[in-house]
């Protein structure tokens, strides 16, 4: 039974009111600002964002360390990233984000390793700077091919007054100008992963760009077609299935930030003619900085699903000459038959299915086109750590009346799903099993549920296959309770 | 074009296609400024040498690929083991996202836990407001019967006082005055997740036995005939506690499992999400004080708790995760002695069946060398089991095992002809182990999912018998304890052996002379 837009809005608003009843009054008022049914024509989604989570509500958010080490820095493969502080943070974030890379781990690449200072009580009491110096020495001895070291601060560092900047400068000087980068991404800073992204971006600005001799790579020859991929973490190989398209339209990708990335790529990025930005939320800061300081324009793109890919390829090509523009059309035409075949195969199975999303800072809007290419409909979406500019951008993707939830709590999300009864939920590992217990198909939209890539044309085929795998599984027919319970 | 609607390939095969191989080669040669391949190969080989091992073992400050997590993870495990109990971790919120993800990746189950979401202002002024609001929100939203509080390192560094904070929260009406909020300080910079298990469990027992934070008079112990069982931190808890309960039922013994998360991490898929399921009830916790004895299955997971129980007058039987035939014998005889009941015939039969299974297969594992790493107690149990099979535990390594633990393992090794070449490595990590595998190779490795990097680098086949296991499904559903668990352990060791043997004898016309159908 399909509702009119007005009926859907009224139903969503009633649902929000009902869910808020569970909170103490003061808290209900606060949460009310983060929940809404989208009104067509509004400049944003009508929710507050990037505000402290309420204590005790089971927020799904992480912390600044997760944003810096887990997202931005961790994937840079030829550097050693020290999780500086107690053992836990590094352990829980060890290799779980699937940032694929090519290299010999432990020799010239370090992406799936856990380097930690493993703070003990004495380090807290007496400070960890001396230990950090020693750690840097030991890294140099045992991992001589590392191209740099980053120090990813965990909570205690900022609280005990350690001076990791001084240690970094001192050791860098001792080691002939070695890249050593202190990052102040203690988990208590900010309200989510988001500030960690920003801090990590700023660290690249201050400790990479500002300290790199422009003549460092004399053999680097620029071309008019040099671009850098910004904000693709190569989950399941996403950056590669994106890069291949940019190369096919005749561009030269001089850097990947930061999936399968190297410090040299970062250092050479100021030579790019255009920065192409996939994850706006986590890397708009450095893109803006490069625009201001080096005059490099940047363009946001979206490589989820053919509709958005075509639009993005044309948009990117529009910044270059006619050759590139023609190439873009050629590439779009080249992939069209494959894409059409994929849609022909899966759309009949997925058409009209309702999806609810809850992801980080980009995908809650970015993946909508890919679902719609398969005939699926987004009835609710929300972000863990978006800012208002993300909610503005979201309006270009969603339909009137869509349920919006910012920093959703476990309680709210469960209630929303119970009432809306979507055919598919796309969220994270902490949510996956909750909804599967309810008998609802689910795909992880952070890790691609260990599949992928999902970006680009090659990725779209996998995306379509996976959504069908989730929805069409026979298990859901068994998941509504035992047959003898249904009698009567 | 690699992709085709009729046969869609994902990352496993997609990137082996020529287009992508060319992309990788171009990226490498034009933009990465990598070291020369010969140099990489040189260093790669150097990391396998005794010289490198010496440097590696000389490390004093750096930890690489540790096999331990931090205290609050153990505290969340404990909270999950009590009926309708919500784990609440006071401190930064990212930690809780990590504990929940970590457990969910291992158990493939939901893990509920809340944070007090402390931020910069709380770092300056303390987290009292976060506690006050947090308890109110948790209580109203999730309607638990109990909230078990632990701490992240942030709260510990700034010195928040849980006892005072919880009291204040009650005074301010966040939760009813008589609502149970057991708590434990669980600093991440002390010990590991097993320490957190110990602290959190002690916190629960003290809360209920010492007057519920001033709500009632402390309980008086009136000894009865029941016994308690404390399992310790265990990645196979779902299968194991089910098995332990079955064993007690066969004995006809009234036993209280203190901390039982085996149901909350094993709920059905039938259309309903159960945030709470099973677990030790408050009544059981209170009754547990009166037990005549407590079996502590893992000593290093429950050191403070065991001491407290002794102070309360319990006879405490402390074990080191005994498994296999001898290990299970030890457990059953302890139960029998404490209860005065004979070991049930059914279990005696199971014992004989396990012995039978070992006899059938022992020749294949006899003399095989094993490296093993993991939590301290578990390693003692596994070491004894390997010796029982005639296998040789060669490198026994624990990141969170101390010198006391190492002494225990050395004594176990010394007592067996198969342990003579075994060495014990307390407070070492998996990068140390990598050096050991290259310089003193073994046949098999027992570890967790992260052991797959060692398997890849050193070629040592991995048997996944240690938490966390992310890349295999459902191991946690089967017991590793008891004779039934012994059967499972034996089968897993054998499977890896046979897989390896088949893989080593399957080249047609070359090695397949040994490709036997009967093994």
Automatic annotation (TrEMBL), chain A:
Its cofactor is [7Fe-Mo-9S-C-homocitryl] cluster; [8Fe-7S] cluster. Its EC number is 1.18.6.1. Residues 63-470 form the Nitrogenase/oxidoreductase component domain. Keywords: ATP-binding, Iron, Iron-sulfur, Metal-binding, Molybdenum, Nitrogen fixation, Nucleotide-binding, Oxidoreductase. It comes from the Bacteria. It comes from Rubrivivax gelatinosus (strain NBRC 100245 / IL144). Signal peptide: none annotated. It is an enzyme of class 1 (oxidoreductase). The keyword Ribosomal protein does not apply. GO terms for molecular function: ATP binding; iron-sulfur cluster binding; metal ion binding; nitrogenase activity. Belongs to the NifD/NifK/NifE/NifN family. It catalyses: N2 + 8 reduced [2Fe-2S]-[ferredoxin] + 16 ATP + 16 H2O = H2 + 8 oxidized [2Fe-2S]-[ferredoxin] + 2 NH4(+) + 16 ADP + 16 phosphate + 6 H(+). The keyword Disulfide bond does not apply. The gene is nifD. This molybdenum-iron protein is part of the nitrogenase complex that catalyzes the key enzymatic reactions in nitrogen fixation. SUPFAM superfamilies: Helical backbone' metal receptor. Tetramer of two alpha and two beta chains. Forms complex with the iron protein (nitrogenase component 2). It holds the Pfam family Oxidored_nitro. PANTHER family: NITROGENASE MOLYBDENUM-IRON PROTEIN ALPHA CHAIN. This is Nitrogenase protein alpha chain. GO terms for cellular component: molybdenum-iron nitrogenase complex.
UniProtKB/TrEMBL annotation, chain B:
Gene3D superfamilies: Nitrogenase molybdenum iron protein domain, Nitrogenase Molybdenum-iron Protein, subunit B, domain 4. Its EC number is 1.18.6.1. Keywords: ATP-binding, Iron, Iron-sulfur, Metal-binding, Nitrogen fixation, Nucleotide-binding, Oxidoreductase. Signal peptide: none annotated. InterPro entries: ChlB/BchB/BchZ, Nase/OxRdtase_comp1, Nase_comp1_CS, Nase_Mo-Fe_CF_bsu, Nase_Mo-Fe_CF_bsu_N. GO terms for molecular function: ATP binding; iron-sulfur cluster binding; metal ion binding; nitrogenase activity. It catalyses: N2 + 8 reduced [2Fe-2S]-[ferredoxin] + 16 ATP + 16 H2O = H2 + 8 oxidized [2Fe-2S]-[ferredoxin] + 2 NH4(+) + 16 ADP + 16 phosphate + 6 H(+). Residues 70-494 form the Nitrogenase/oxidoreductase component domain. Transmembrane segments: none annotated. CDD domains: Nitrogenase_MoFe_beta. Tetramer of two alpha and two beta chains. Forms complex with the iron protein (nitrogenase component 2). Belongs to the NifD/NifK/NifE/NifN family. This is Nitrogenase molybdenum-iron protein beta chain. It comes from Rubrivivax gelatinosus (strain NBRC 100245 / IL144).
């Amino acid at each position: 039974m399909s509702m009119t837009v007005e009926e859907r809005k009224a139903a969503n608003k009633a649902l929000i009111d009902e869910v808020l009843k569970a909170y103490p009054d003061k808290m209900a008022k606060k949460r009310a600002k983060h929940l809404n049914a989208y009104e067509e024509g509004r400049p944003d989604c009508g929710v507050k964002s990037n505000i402290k989570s309420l204590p005790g509500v089971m927020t799904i958010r992480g912390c600044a360390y997760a944003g810096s080490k887990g997202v931005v820095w961790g994937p840079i493969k030829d550097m050693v990233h020290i999780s500086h502080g107690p053992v836990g943070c590094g352990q829980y974030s060890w290799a779980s984000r699937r940032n694929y890379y090519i290299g010999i781990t432990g020799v010239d690449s370090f992406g799936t390793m856990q380097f930690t200072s493993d703070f003990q009580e004495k380090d807290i009491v007496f400070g960890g700077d001396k230990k950090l110096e020693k750690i840097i020495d030991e890294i140099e001895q045992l991992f001589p091919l590392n191209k740099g070291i980053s120090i990813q601060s965990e909570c205690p560092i900022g609280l005990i007054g350690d001076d990791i900047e001084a240690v970094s400068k001192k050791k860098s000087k001792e080691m002939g100008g070695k890249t050593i980068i202190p990052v102040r991404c203690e988990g208590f800073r900010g309200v989510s992963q988001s500030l960690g992204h920003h801090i990590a971006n700023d660290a690249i600005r201050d400790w990479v760009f500002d300290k790199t001799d422009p003549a460092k790579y004399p053999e680097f020859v620029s071309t008019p077609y040099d671009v850098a991929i910004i904000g693709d973490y190569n989950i399941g190989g996403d950056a590669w299935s994106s890069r291949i398209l940019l190369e096919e339209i005749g561009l030269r990708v001089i850097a990947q930030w930061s999936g399968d990335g190297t410090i040299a790529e970062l250092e050479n990025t100021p030579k790019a003619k255009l920065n192409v930005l996939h994850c706006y939320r986590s890397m708009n800061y450095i893109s803006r900085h490069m625009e201001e300081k080096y005059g490099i324009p940047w363009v946001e793109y979206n490589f989820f699903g053919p509709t958005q890919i075509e639009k993005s390829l044309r948009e990117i090509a529009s910044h270059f000459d006619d050759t590139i523009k023609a190439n873009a059309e050629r590439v779009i035409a080249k992939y069209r038959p494959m894409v059409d075949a994929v849609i022909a195969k899966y759309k009949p199975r997925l058409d009209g299915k309702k999806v609810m999303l809850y992801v980080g800072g980009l995908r809650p809007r970015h993946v909508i086109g890919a679902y719609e290419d398969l005939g699926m409909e987004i009835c609710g979406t929300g972000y863990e750590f978006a800012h208002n500019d993300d909610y503005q951008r979201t309006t270009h993707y969603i339909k009137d009346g869509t349920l919006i939830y910012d920093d959703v709590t476990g309680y709210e999300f469960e209630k929303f799903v119970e009432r809306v009864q979507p055919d598919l939920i796309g969220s994270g590992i902490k949510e996956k099993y909750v909804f599967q217990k309810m008998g609802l198909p689910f795909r992880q939209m952070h890790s691609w549920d260990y599949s992928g890539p999902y970006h680009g044309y090659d990725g779209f085929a996998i995306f379509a296959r996976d959504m069908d795998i989730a929805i069409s599984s026979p298990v859901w027919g068994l998941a509504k309770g035992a047959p003898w319970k249904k009698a009567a | 074009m690699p992709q085709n609607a009729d046969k869609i390939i994902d990352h496993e095969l997609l990137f082996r296609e020529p287009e992508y191989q060319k992309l990788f080669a171009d990226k490498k040669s034009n933009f990465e400024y990598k070291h020369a391949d010969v140099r990489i190969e040189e260093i790669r080989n150097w990391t396998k040498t005794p010289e490198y091992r010496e440097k590696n073992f000389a490390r004093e400050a750096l930890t690489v690929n540790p096999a331990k997590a931090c205290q609050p993870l153990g505290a969340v495990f404990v909270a999950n083991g009590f009926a309708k109990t919500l784990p609440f971790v006071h401190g930064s919120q990212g930690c809780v996202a990590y504990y929940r993800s970590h457990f969910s990746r291992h158990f493939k189950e939901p893990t509920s836990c809340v944070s007090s979401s402390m931020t910069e202002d709380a770092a300056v002024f303390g987290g009292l407001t976060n506690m006050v609001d947090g308890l109110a929100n948790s209580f109203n939203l999730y309607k638990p019967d109990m909230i078990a509080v632990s701490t992240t390192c942030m709260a510990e560094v700034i010195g928040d006082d849980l006892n005072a904070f919880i009291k204040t929260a009650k005074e301010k009406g966040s939760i009813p005055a008589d609502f149970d909020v057991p708590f434990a300080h669980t600093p991440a910079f002390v010990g590991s997740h097993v320490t957190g298990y110990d602290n959190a469990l002690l916190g629960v027992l003290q809360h209920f036995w010492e007057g519920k934070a001033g709500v009632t008079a402390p309980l008086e112990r009136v000894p009865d005939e029941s016994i308690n069982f404390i399992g310790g931190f265990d990645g196979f808890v779902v299968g194991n506690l089910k098995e332990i309960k079955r064993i007690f039922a066969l004995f006809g013994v009234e036993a209280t499992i203190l901390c039982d998360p085996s149901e909350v991490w094993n709920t059905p898929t039938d259309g309903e999400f159960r945030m709470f399921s099973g677990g030790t009830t408050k009544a059981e916790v209170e009754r547990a004080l009166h037990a005549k004895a407590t079996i502590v299955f893992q000593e290093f997971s429950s050191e403070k708790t065991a001491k407290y129980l002794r102070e309360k007058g319990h006879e405490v039987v402390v074990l080191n995760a005994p498994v296999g035939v001898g290990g299970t014998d030890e457990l059953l005889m302890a139960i029998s002695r404490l209860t005065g009941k004979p070991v049930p015939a059914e279990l005696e039969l199971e014992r004989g069946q396990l012995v039978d299974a070992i006899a059938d297969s022992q020749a294949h594992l006899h003399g095989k060398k094993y490296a093993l790493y993991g939590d301290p107690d578990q390693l003692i149990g596994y070491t004894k089991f390997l010796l029982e099979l005639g296998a040789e535990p060669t490198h026994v390594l624990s990141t969170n095992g101390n010198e006391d633990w190492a002494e225990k393992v050395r004594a176990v090794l010394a007592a067996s002809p198969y342990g003579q070449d075994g060495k014990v490595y307390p407070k070492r990590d998996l990068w140390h182990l990598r050096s050991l595998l290259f310089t003193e190779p073994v046949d098999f490795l027992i570890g967790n999912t992260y052991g797959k990097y060692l398997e890849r680098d050193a070629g040592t086949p991995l048997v996944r018998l240690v938490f966390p296991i992310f890349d295999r499904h459902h191991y946690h559903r089967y017991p590793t304890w008891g004779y039934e668990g012994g059967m499972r352990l034996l089968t897993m060791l054998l499977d890896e052996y046979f897989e390896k043997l088949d893989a080593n004898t399957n080249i047609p016309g070359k090695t397949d002379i040994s490709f036997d159908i009967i093994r």
